[in-house]
Write a structure and sequence with these properties.
This protein is an alpha/beta fold and 552 residues long. The protein is built from twelve helices and 32 strands. Plays a central role as a glucosyl donor in cellular metabolic pathways.
């Protein structure tokens, strides 16, 4: 019964006795009774507090708290041992199956098995909420307090010659209705993300006479297309290097075997394991050793779709001067960023705290922009020698992010890590609280509307905010599913409206915009079902709620 661990059966008027304990082996004793731990137990007992069993003659007495705790501990240990045996069996079977996969390298196989082993061991660190502290300005440094970079051009060149720019280029543009790498989506004046990145670094190298190379970390999804695309930059004054991040097999949830071993040999059988893989992949590719031999010291890592992630000499100068091995750029949260990871001080080290690590009872507190005021931009500056040291020591054990998926009706699991979570393994790691202008990602067509509008201008590849915009924050823009794909988005605008004085825009239904439209204040446009709503050329809409032509 569920009460068994709380009672001891003691002898009353008969010789039979039994001590009831959880997790102890049961055997058959003389006379047909059962034996527990070698002692004979009567056939039938009625468990009532402090009364005699009419059939057994056993008096049941409460056990002590110490005995009950010991029994519970024993049960827990047995359960843990059983789980460990099951995990070992899963790993052994998985290792055997992965060894037969010819599509990936031995390094990738070893990295994958190590990641899965960590996942099955349940080694995830539990955050003790009471130990979380708000970082001081020494840990998260305000950007405004950084010393200016040297004015001497030779000193600037010397600084920049220690730098490498690495863009994460593994993502596809499928969510915006595009094929191929996301970095080749046109974002402004016919230029793609990649065009703008190359123009920026070209401009930097030309201005200071330095040699900052560009690295692109591709995935198996983007590698072939990217190799063809970078050929158009062959006459550029920058070195462009590409390498692939790891390719891991998806795990079938039912039997914990790799999906490719079951005949799914196409791309759907595999996945790139998150941008936390940037560090081992940089090393495994041989690029890390090459960069170190060239005297490079720091790598600036950023998402290829973040138009605000440009080289900042003030930040580079601060890191080199203070010998910081790792720096994460953070920026003030808005209500749109409440789920973003934040930096905390935890047991004497700076650490990234993601919403998935937060106990349920503290999630609302985590989302508060009053207590947790900053979030991770994923602009990272990392010392190359430190990467080499930690990768060689296999010390980068970032938190694992389980990502369940379904492929052709088969439930699968992919395990990922994030580069920002590595911060706690580096010495003198810091955050820098940067202006919001350094975080300008394009994740959807609503973001595309912002960067294509008069809210920004383009100078030497840099997307620069229009000083005519008085408010520090960008307008809030929500576009309906009719605008989700880039092709549909572009077809619905003769020209991008002026939004310098816009606070918010919500558009839904079959809506299209003429040329020279101006939007100000708060504008909502909702076409009724079956109605095509066209905003005429030159229309000025200020604080308008439009549901049909009659509202224009």
């Amino acid at each position: 019964t569920s009460r068994m661990s709380c009672w001891t059966a003691a002898p009353s008027d008969g010789p039979a006795s039994a001590v009831v304990r959880p997790g102890v082996g049961v055997g058959v004793g003389a006379g047909g009774g059962h034996c527990i731990g070698g002692r004979r137990r009567p056939r039938r007992r009625v468990l009532r507090r402090g009364v005699c069993s009419q059939t057994s003659g056993a008096l049941l007495l409460p056990v002590t708290a110490e005995e009950d705790a010991a029994a519970s501990l024993l049960s827990a240990r047995i359960a843990m041992a059983a789980a460990a045996v099951a995990a070992d069996s899963k790993i052994d079977n998985l290792r055997d199956a992965v060894a037969k996969l010819g599509e990936i390298s031995e390094n990738e196989k070893a990295g994958f098995i190590s990641l899965v082993s960590r996942y099955l061991s349940g080694e995830a660190e539990q955050i003790e909420w009471s130990k979380i502290q708000t970082p001081t300005d020494e840990v998260v440094v305000p950007y405004d307090t950084l010393a200016p970079p040297p004015e001497d051009l030779d000193a600037m060149k010397a600084l920049l010659d220690k730098l490498v720019v690495l863009k994460l280029n593994g993502g596809l543009g499928t969510t915006m209705g595009c094929t191929g790498p996301k970095s080749v989506i046109e974002v402004r004046n016919g230029f793609t993300f990649l065009d703008l990145i190359v123009i920026q670094i070209e401009s930097l190298n030309k201005k200071y006479g330095c040699s900052v190379p560009l690295l692109l970390m591709n995935s198996f999804n983007t590698h072939d297309d990217t190799q063809k695309i970078v050929e158009k930059y062959s006459n550029s004054n920058i070195e462009i290097h590409t390498f692939n991040q790891s390719q891991y097999p998806r795990i079938v949830t039912e039997d914990f075997l790799p999906l490719p071993s079951k005949g799914q040999t196409g791309k759907d059988g595999w996945y790139p394991p998150g941008h936390g893989d940037v560090f081992p992949s940089l090393n495994n590719s041989g690029k890390l050793d090459t960069l170190l031999s060239q005297g490079k010291e720091y790598v600036f890592v950023a998402n290829s779709d973040n138009l605000g992630a440009i080289v900042d000499i003030k930040i580079l100068n601060h890191l080199i001067t203070n010998q910081n091995e790792y720096c994460m750029e953070v920026t003030p949260k808005t209500l749109a960023d409440v789920k973003g990871g934040t930096l905390i001080s935890y047991e004497g080290r700076v650490q990234l705290l993601e919403i998935a690590q937060v106990p349920d009872e503290h999630v609302n507190e985590f989302k508060s922009i009053e207590k947790f005021k900053i979030f991770n931009t994923n602009n990272l500056w990392v010392n190359l020698k430190a990467i080499k040291r930690l990768v060689d020591a296999e010390a980068l054990k970032m938190e694992i992010i389980p990502n369940p998926k379904e492929v052709d009706g088969v439930k699968v699991l992919q395990l990922e890590t994030a580069a920002g979570a590595a911060i706690r393994f580096f010495e003198k790691a810091i955050g820098i609280n940067v202006p919001r202008s350094r975080f300008l990602p394009v994740k959807a067509t609503s973001d595309l509307l912002l960067v294509q509008s008069d809210l920004y201008t383009l100078v030497d590849g840099y997307v620069i905010r229009n000083p005519a915009r008085v408010k520090p924050s960008n307008p809030s823009i929500e576009l309906g599913p009719e605008f989700k794909k880039v092709a549909n988005f572009l077809a619905r605008f003769k020209s991008i409206p002026s939004i310098v004085e816009l606070d918010s825009l919500k558009v839904s239904g079959d809506v299209s915009f003429g040329s020279g439209v101006v939007l100000k204040g708060n504008v909502t446009i909702a076409a009724k079902a079956g109605v095509k709503l066209e905003i005429p050329d030159g229309a000025v809409l200020e604080n308008k709620d439009i549901n049909g032509p009659e509202d224009l």
